[in-house]
Design a protein that fits this description.
Largest sheet: 5 strands, antiparallel
Radius of gyration: 23 Å
Strand order of the largest sheet: 4-3-2-1-5
Number of strands: 9
Strand content: 25-35%
Number of helices: 4
Structural class: alpha+beta
Length: 154
Amino acid sequence: MIARIIMTILQYPVGAVVGFRDEFQTEYRTVSGYQYSHGSFYVLFFEDNMVHMNRLKALVVSVEKKEDMTMQVSKKVTKSGAVTLPRGVRQETGILPGVPVDILTDDEGIHILKHVPACFHCGTVDNVKTVCGIEICGNCAKEIMEVFDNESDQ
């Protein structure tokens, strides 16, 4: 079942325009997300429709994937300063509950990016672990260990 769900997500990504054919015309809908409910997986559409993954093959006549899709949504800032990211944005970017994000500001505005662990000392993103709340790469950790090993030898 998991393999079928993954294949469905890859075949019908968020933002794809899907053509459904009935006997008279083709109707186009845009994928907005996914839902797993009561043991069934559904593809959700912006038009407030959902289709069970097992029925998609029989109904769909075309899928146009948008490579350069952007999404614009207006949200209010809460009293505490929070903004909820819409489900479609979270699913498209892989920002799931508990995933850390970086919030950057520049002349163009505010940017929310999925956090990529980087070494506090050298900035590399390769082989980074979090130790005592500090992100450190294997090479810097080895150098630090060597310093402590050398001090203990003296």
